[in-house]
Amino acid sequence: MSKIKSPTIRVETSAAKTCEAVRAAQQAGKTVGFVPTMGALHEGHLSLVDASLAECDKTIVSIFVNPTQFGPDEDLKNYPRSLDRDLELLEQRGCWLVFAPPVEEVYREGHETSVDVGSVALPWEGKSRPDHFGGVATVVLKLFQIVPADRAYFGQKDYQQSLVIRQMAADLNVPIEIRVCPIVREPDGLAKSSRNAYLSPEERKQASGLWQALKIAETLVAEGETSAAVITEKMKPLLEHVDVESRCFERVRSTKWRRSQKRRS
Amino acid sequence: MSKIKSPTIRVETSAAKTCEAVRAAQQAGKTVGFVPTMGALHEGHLSLVDASLAECDKTIVSIFVNPTQFGPDEDLKNYPRSLDRDLELLEQRGCWLVFAPPVEEVYREGHETSVDVGSVALPWEGKSRPDHFGGVATVVLKLFQIVPADRAYFGQKDYQQSLVIRQMAADLNVPIEIRVCPIVREPDGLAKSSRNAYLSPEERKQASGLWQALKIAETLVAEGETSAAVITEKMKPLLEHVDVESRCFERVRSTKWRRSQKRRS
To answer: Which of A113, A118, A145 is closest, CB to CB, to B112?
Structure first.
């Protein structure tokens, strides 16, 4: 195991100082790219950092496990945290600044304001996690005020989340360009995710069935199939051994919807 | 009647160009003050402009009658509008830029996002105008994204509104300093308001009873009276001839609350 060196990357815990640093960079004529994360960084996050590094003069990453997007029975307490390793990875990558605030720096005492993006947050994951997208929209808006970057980068893995953020930013006239970047996958097709750490070796093996099922769905859609029921039926055998909740089936419809939208435009 | 000259003040209808202008000014080292208005400017608005002119290098005023803060039975259609005269006044005052967008520049097609500031919007005016403060908080946040000024100026006349805006800006980490400036009154004590134009000469005369009643309340509070019921009872005779709705009584309690808060701190 390689020894973790103490990173020398600039780390800010203060919202005001972070905002000041971003503005100073912009006043010096630099473009700033922003990658909001909850830490426990993997190649998916780093691909967003790379996209920002390629397009912007300076890249800032936030590491903040946002409590308001977790439901009461969800994994806030056990969500994986690895700040030292995250900082080392970001330093190696050439990141400029990390905003890693304590909770009270983001949520002041007495805070009550929330953001509701409307219908895009209601179906799919919004159904099974009723407060999730309100928490996401609110914290991303807050981070956009603290980090008034030129561009912000999100992963397509959280597809509905990317729709929620686009809706929020466009509706509220936030002057930050939203970039949504491709999913990064494990060799067997499973999307990289901090929460993959929760899977036992057996579950991890079975989880690739998800990707195989999605590939089948993709093929069917490409061949012109438009019935979610038909697509779902053909995916089922591959998901037999996966402990997957029904909401995952619904996401297929989201993909279909996106494709049919594209076709229409 | 003096002839209205065509104003030469810079007027922008584009959100993007306005944002760009504010940033360019800041990048040139100038501080920017922002006065959001719904037009029909009077001495109250102009006192906010003056406060901004005194504290900031450049002052930008928005003129936008925001449809989402009017209830279905309210006066959106008939709200007084006087753009030419407003521009002339602002030019005379030494204002830098006026943002006067059409509705569709502020609310894009398909917009659904709204901001809820929580408990501060519920009592008093929030009771009689249930969607009002949501509309106010949302449009002010939007204007703050379009006009990323250093300071923004609001009148204390709309006292609960100022609390709503402070709550929104603080909760969402908006990096704009909120300034709340004193009420400007007519010689007989009535607060200056664009909606005073709705009053008939008889109503206008009677309306000064409001101010007289408030003065009595102020005196009682200064003398140590803390019972809203007692204060209300003593105000009543002065309001007998005023066509005033019961919510106005409730605002007395808001004043008392503010004072008692101050006393405690």
So the answer is: A118
